[in-house]
Amino acid sequence: MNSLRRPVSINLGTVHYTKTAPWYLFLRPLDMGMNIQRMADIAAKLGIALPTAEVYGGFSGFYDWGPIGAELKANVKRSWWNEFVHKSHEVIGLDGSIITNPEVWKASGHVDHFHDPIVVCKKCGKRFRADHLIEDALNINVEGKSAEEMTKIIRENDIRCPACGGELGEVKLFNLMFATQVGPYEGSISYLRPETAQLIFANFPRLYQLARKRMPLGIAQIGKAFRNEISPRNFLFRLREFEQMEIEFFFDPENDSCPYYDDVKDYEALVLTAEMQERGERERRMKISEIVPEIPGREWIVYWIVRSLRWYEKIGVKKDLLRVREQLPDERAHYSQGTWDIEFNFEGMGWKEIQGVAHRGTYDLSRHQQHSGKSFEAVRPDGSKFIPMVIEPSWGVDRVVLAVLFSAYDEEEKRKLFRFHPAVAPYTVAVFPLVSRDGLPEKAWEIYTDLLDEGINAVYDEKGSIGRRYRRQDEIGTPWCITVDYQTMEDNTVTIRDRDTMEQVRVPVDEVVEWIRKHVKSSSA
Amino acid sequence: MNSLRRPVSINLGTVHYTKTAPWYLFLRPLDMGMNIQRMADIAAKLGIALPTAEVYGGFSGFYDWGPIGAELKANVKRSWWNEFVHKSHEVIGLDGSIITNPEVWKASGHVDHFHDPIVVCKKCGKRFRADHLIEDALNINVEGKSAEEMTKIIRENDIRCPACGGELGEVKLFNLMFATQVGPYEGSISYLRPETAQLIFANFPRLYQLARKRMPLGIAQIGKAFRNEISPRNFLFRLREFEQMEIEFFFDPENDSCPYYDDVKDYEALVLTAEMQERGERERRMKISEIVPEIPGREWIVYWIVRSLRWYEKIGVKKDLLRVREQLPDERAHYSQGTWDIEFNFEGMGWKEIQGVAHRGTYDLSRHQQHSGKSFEAVRPDGSKFIPMVIEPSWGVDRVVLAVLFSAYDEEEKRKLFRFHPAVAPYTVAVFPLVSRDGLPEKAWEIYTDLLDEGINAVYDEKGSIGRRYRRQDEIGTPWCITVDYQTMEDNTVTIRDRDTMEQVRVPVDEVVEWIRKHVKSSSA
Fold it and tell me: Rounded to an integer, what distance in angstroms lies between the CA atom of residue B236 and that of residue B232?
């Protein structure tokens, strides 16, 4: 977002920009500020993301990615895989099944514990999260209470429907996994995975062997996950069908030093520790290495947080809109020795988690070892065996894309545009013939297909005036436009126009591929 | 597959190779021949594909892609998207939701008609496809018959359980869609999509607008689909969770000529028309343009079949193992004016469909227009409106990968290897330091990360003897291995070793990226 347009009434989070904004910009009407609904409208208009099957009224919690969004999301995922799988010496990939053996979800605890308590109003029929109602009414935490206990609290305190004041029914537990019958045999129930992580844990014994017993060992995965949210909301932020990018990073607690630690220990970012939250403080700039306590795998935790933050810079998520927030003890799972959220400051919505880095200890592998009766141990060079500990950096793909959208969107007097980073822009370059005759389209098409052959994502457009074509590419965030004109036919040069500066340079056709590559690379350096 | 190893007892399909095979090769033991189970074993051993959650005994019809398979499958998908979306002037992309509004599946006919008739043996409890039992016993086609009618046929002809001879129960219809409850309201049932196609059809009105009313217009999608198969089987061939790559290519039946037709009309391949099948003939080499009759969109059908066949060559699917088979009239959907399957000759299994090219007429858009009450029409330059016809080239990703595996696998006296095409090989290049000291690993790592930065998928390995490292890369089909040795430290050159010829050349480090790019490109030409 161009922060200059930020209306004063919006939660500012950090206040880095407002000082430099000239006063008259604040006179713009409030509806010009960004918020999640406005972004949803822009996304639909440009074909980034659409309510699924909108001719039937959509379907709450589900979106279809349109032509521009499909490219953008694919680029984010590819960049991530390249960064965290290919460029990580310790990490291998996996692409697990969405439906798997239901024993996985028994072992993981999801069958027994992955539910929300819901309560129905007897009068108006609306459904609510019972824990939220109680917390709002009494300001007490009911984490871990049973459905019966919550019903009792509601009765004793006469908590009523916030919508109509009617009496509330019994609290019931609603499992958030989507269940489905597999095969024609009644009773064969499995689930759509509520997280990709368990596919990694369940496959650990085989993958550890395939990786020739390397330790530490990271196993990465990208894929869809499904949660039957009671109230999906906020566009791509809380979906029922979403996508995750996860790494389970296994290590030996007795040998947990990180060889790259020197490279990350001085990296600074906005942070908010649990202590700072308890003291009511705001986030501030600190070294990540200062905020992670002495727990096993500490150096790796710092490493994964810093690598994540560096990657966000590479895909154009604004650093000043990111902070690392330590989860409060009552927020994190009982087996976790610490969890850090990476949050993005969404204009109009404030700080929201787009990634978590959780210490899961030996919990998951122990559960699978116990449930399957198979060994989930690793072996040290000295022959002794141990269950590896795990650190889990876990990204929400849709949320990261949303952070990319909020970071890139900008409005100028004459254009609205996404200033996407070349690493993730739906198209890296557009190719136009100035006019649709005299051999210009053929020449432009040739340059276009050459770019594609070189692995550069290009788009071809010959419809409308050249000015309109530039605007169209600005709107969807294409960094460069190449135009073939009459001079091209004489001296084999083209113009390359920069989205951000709107300046044009003339480049020989033979050097176009190199020019683009060089500029993509230098913008990632 | 190296066809020379093909045992004589196997269904040969085409007989191109056997003439050139020396007689003594046929003396090899039969179990050296390839078949689907042996490929499944190799795939598990190398980490290509694993039965999902195998510590819990797997789950019938579901597989997890391991580290090597995840890369291979991603490369096949990326090659496809680049070829058919980016390089197709008429095609845009979509990435639709797996769960969508259930009205989509009512409109498409899946809720009412997408089922198999099953019957249970009263004695042994085994389940069977009733239509298959009847067809086997009486040699009659029961397509379109109701469950009651099939029960009656079974009773009247005393058809019994093929497993135990027991009496069979009533025929019941089993819908192949996975159903699931969405949200906490009982009765809100939706389905996992049984095909990606309907997401494209349902979104047509918006996507047509986004594409600025271009016609013809192709809309492409890659994604998971789910069918609750009664008998999943044959490794990746018949799965319950699988992946599709589809294009719905919409055109105006009154303006259906293809501007690229000259480029495809003389392309020859093995074909088997409906007529040839009825006459009991084998496939033979013919022009694709000769086998498509005069129906609307004829030129585009030829175009899509030829483009598909050309793409298979680019990813290393052997041309001689592919044929185009026209579906027989009783195989295809009632609304189809013609459907052509592209089949691959899997050793040990024979010709099997890996892709279909179906003429779906105006069926799907008409159904959605009727069901939604919204317009699914396109408009001609003269203002007249029409419902576009559609041609659907549809690939099974898992099956295409399987064809890549069968095409690439080879055995020599001293090595077993996948001769993957560089365009899809899990890794394009491996980088080794000759020894793990004297600065060689650092130099090798530098070359390795440079390759990654240039978008070339590389893998780094410093474990084991250089010979073993070569074999390891041969096994997973890496086309080239770069070795940093002591000479590198003197003159900044490395050796590049070719997987297929096992020959080595010395190349200056500065020219490695260009060398690899040039060789990838020339192998795709």
Answer: 9
Per-residue pLDDT of A1-37, as tens digits, reads 333 333 333 333 333 333 344 444 444 444 468 999 9
Tokens of A323: 């902070």
With an 8 Å Cβ cutoff, are B228 and A453 in contact? no
Distance (Å, rounded) from C-alpha A264 to C-alpha A308? 11
Task: Judge whether B118 is closer than 8 Å to chain A, CB to CB.
Answer: yes
- pTM score of the predicted model: 0.92
- Which region holds residue A311: left if phi is over 0, alpha if psi is between -120 and 50, else beta? alpha
Task: Quote the Cα angle for B315-B317-B322, to 5°.
Answer: 140
Q: Is the pLDDT of residue B200 over 90?
A: yes
Model pLDDT for residues A31-65, shown as the tens digit of each residue: 468 999 999 999 999 999 999 999 999 999 999 99
Between residues B13 and B436, the one the model is more confident about: B436
Contact B209, B371 (CB under 8 A): no
CA distance A15 to B416: 62
B188: number of Cβ within 10 Å = 14
- pLDDT higher than threshold 90 for residue B283: yes
Q: What is the ipTM of this complex?
A: 0.91
Cα gap A43→B221, rounded to integer Å: 19
Structure confidence by residue, pLDDT tens digits, B407-463: 999 999 999 999 999 999 999 999 999 999 999 999 999 999 999 888 899 999 999
Q: What is the pLDDT of residue B521?
A: 86
Residue B18 confidence (pLDDT): 34
Confidence class for position B7, pLDDT limits 50, 70, 90: very low
> Are the beta carbons of A182 and B240 separated by less than 8 Å?
yes
CB contact under 8 A, B185 and A240: no
**Interface mutation target, options A79, A80, A101, chain B, most CBs of B under 10 Å:** A101
CA atoms within 13 A on the CB side of B521: 12
Residue B136 has a CB neighbour count (10 Å cut-off) of 12
Contact list in B for residue A423 (CB cut-off 8 A) is: none
- Residue B343 three-state SS: strand
Decide if A52 and B230 are in contact by the 8 Å CB cutoff: no
Neighbours of A504 (CB within 10 A): 13
Distance CA A428, CA B43 (A): 36
Strand ranges, E, within B36-76: 49-51, 63-65
Residue contact B64–A182, C-beta within 8 A: no
The whole-number pLDDT of residue A329 equals 87
Select from A73, A143, A459 the least CA-distant residue to B91.
A459
DSSP string, A374-430: S---EE-TTS-EEPPEEEEEEEEHHHHHHHHHHHHEEE-SS-EEE---TTT-S-SEE
CB contact under 8 A, B71 and A93: yes
Instruction: Write down the residue that tokens 């078949």 correspond to.
Output: B35
Structure tokens at A363: 């919990």
Find the residue in B nearest to A188 (Cα): B59
Residues 6+ apart with CB under 8 A from A152: none
A contact residues 122-151, partner B, Cβ 8 Å cutoff: 127
